Amino acid sequence: RWVLSLQCKGSRNFMSALRRAVEVDFKDRAKHRSQGLYLLTTGVPDQETHTISAYVAEVCRGFDLQLHVCLFSVLKGTASSGIAPARCATPLETAKAFKEIVQAAKGRFHWFGEAGIFESDDITSIISEMEKAKNYSQKCAFLVESLKQRS
């Protein structure tokens, strides 16, 4: 519920926010088996991707933490009052940077916009499972058919 009371403010200083989250807000992390952080963002962080990825990998290795990113691409020309401008990066560059960070954190990446879902690790996993099930079903059908022909 506390998320609903938040106001959009601040900067894109990702490292500062991440440090606060893992060094201050996760004081009781030893009591929990696993924890996750969700970053909801509209742009690329101010810091270099490799710096963030190295820090995230080190922090996540220390305890069972996963960083998940939800990137929302805002359409060009949309008023973004209260949102700090991102450093120069195309939407594809932004997505690539967050995918690298998420891989270091063993988390999941989701990229969407007003037009729909561009990419989602969860949806990719579901589609993969569906493909496996379809292939298994086809193999079973082939086996049943070959058994029928033998008898």
UniProtKB/TrEMBL annotation:
It comes from the Eukaryota. This is VWA3A protein. It comes from Climacteris rufus (rufous treecreeper).
